[in-house]
Specification:
CATH architecture: 2-Layer Sandwich
Distance between the termini: 26 Å
Order of helices and strands: HHEEEHEEEH
Radius of gyration: 14 Å
Largest sheet: 6 strands, antiparallel
CATH class: Alpha Beta
Number of domains: 1
Structural class: alpha+beta
Strand content: 25-35%
Number of helices: 4
CATH topology: Beta-Lactamase
Helix content: 25-40%
Strand order of the largest sheet: 3-2-1-6-5-4
């Protein structure tokens, strides 16, 4: 399986509409949930005004609205960089939407030098996300940004 080509093929039907973007993001979440192991939650938060608003996801009920100043998602958005948290209990600015979450990875979605949202991934395992997988996920998020934003 070629993960990058599979995701590109999945996103080919995007027609530029909001509905199509939402469907493509939902399918991307399902695709990633299928290839990644030990996840408790995965989803997108998208920029709207001065907040990140919950987008398509899979997992438990989530925070609907995150200020840019709060949580790993807000920090990733503001710093425009990927943040890998091995132990969320030690992250001072963590938002505990799910008390079972132990580690978190947040990757900003960058389009035309601005951040339009983030991909947020949680696990019940500590130190879940490894460097090689993070690099691949960043490449997949770049594909999402190019195809959908």
């Amino acid at each position: 399986m070629n993960t990058k080509q599979d995701l590109e093929a999945l996103l080919e039907s995007f027609d530029g509409s909001i509905e199509s973007r939402y469907c493509s993001l939902a399918n991307t979440v399902a695709f990633l949930k299928g290839i990644l192991k030990e996840l408790s939650w995965i989803g997108f938060y998208l920029k709207k005004d001065s907040f990140l608003i919950l987008g398509p996801f899979q997992g438990k009920i989530a925070c609907e609205k995150i200020p840019f100043t709060r949580g790993v998602c807000g920090d990733s958005y503001t710093k425009k960089e990927t943040i890998n948290v091995d132990n969320v209990n030690l992250y001072e600015n963590h938002i505990a939407c799910d008390s079972e979450s132990c580690s978190e990875l947040v990757i900003p979605i960058k389009s035309k030098s601005r951040v339009v949202g983030v991909l947020d991934i949680d696990s019940k395992s500590f130190s879940r996300f490894k460097d090689d997988e993070i690099i691949l996920l960043e490449e997949l998020v770049d594909i999402v940004a190019k195809k959908l934003f």
